[in-house]
Every structure is written in structure tokens, then in C-alpha cells.
């Protein structure tokens, strides 16, 4: 699953979703099911306290090379340099911001984050391991 079969030089056309961070199982990296107190992994059965959940980057992109369009999803710590922090720390910053601001509607903050990610990626050319 982690072996690179080839390289693709392509430009980012668009960001496919606005959810860049997800709670991830430490064993299998699958998305965790979270409630206010617990997490569980449907794939491997791992469970624990919600405050102990780990977070991981997941950035879905539409990219184009000279001939074709592709949907590519980039996972994990390779995105740390672009965001400037780990997914774990960005999630913590988001939670702290929401608590400190007292903001119940996080839509404007999410929009600002999406706009920042679009500015960083759209129109830029990257080499993707596929």
C-alpha cells in the first residue's frame, strides 16, 4: 500500500473537500468513530478515550498533467510542511480557537482555512507518488 508505482508531475486544479484532518486509528489509519467520550475503529476494533484519538491529514485533490485529469488523495505527515504543523497540532489549535472565541458557528473559520489551503495548492505543480 505504501510502495510508489510511479511518479506523476501534475498541477492542482481544485481541492475536493473541506475536511483536511480526520481522527485516525493508530493501528490501521482508518477513520475513527468518535463520540464525546470514546473512539472506536470499525476496521480493526481498536477503542479508547476520545481525548486520546490521533489525527491525520487527508487532502483530496483534482490534478492535471499535460493529458489527463486525476483525483488524488494525499495522506499523512508529508503534508506537515505545507500546513506548518502536524495534523494533531492543527486539530488542537482548531479546538482551542473554538473554545477561546466562544464561536458556535465555525463555518467562517472553516471557510478561511479552505481558502488558505486553496491558495497554497491550486495552480501549483507537484510530483505525486502514485
From TrEMBL:
Q: Which InterPro entries match?
A: DDIAS, NA-bd_OB-fold, Rep_factor-A_C
- Ranges for domain Replication factor A C-terminal: 9-98
Gene3D superfamilies per the record?
Answer: Nucleic acid-binding proteins
**GO cellular component, as recorded:** cytoplasm; nucleus
Q: What span is annotated as the signal peptide, if there is one? A: none
List the Pfam families. Rep_fac-A_C
Q: Which domain of life is it from?
A: Eukaryota
Report the record's Gene Ontology biological process terms.
Answer: negative regulation of intrinsic apoptotic signaling pathway in response to DNA damage
Name of the featured protein? DDIAS protein
Native species of this protein? Answer: Dasyornis broadbenti
Gene that this polypeptide is encoded by: Ddias
